[in-house]
Amino acid sequence: MKNLKIGDKAPAINSVDQNNQNITLEQFKGSKVVLYFYPKDMTPGCTVQSCNLRDNYEKLLEKGYVVLGCSVDSPARHIKFIDKYDLPFPLISDEEKKVVVDYGVWALKKFMGREYMGINRTTYLIDEHGVIEDIINKVDTKKHTAQILK
Hints:
single chain, alpha+beta, seven-stranded mixed sheet, 5 helices, 27% helix, globular
């Protein structure tokens, strides 16, 4: 498990989005990136978080941010999520779990007494040069945009 810190170069991303199109971090060089990792499409917390970013998307764009979501869901599931909630930003499909491992968010989790591997909800703010500016580990799904723009 990687332990990324503010000031580290953000790990490269080479995956696919909801449309099975190749997506890399390199494509967004020159823009600030909000890269948010969330456990699963269509679940309550993930929906609230994604809709908070959707509802404040214009504010994020005005501040120069590109928004990218990432989970281990399939592109087909991402399309359903985007269509159902009218999400205006791409979702990275990381079915091979390469991105989530590279960013250190794939971890052992506990829920109702059982242990399993899953995504720790985490957001990375990456500057125009691909350097990590901030890491939000304690994501408030209802006020996530405010945490980003603080």
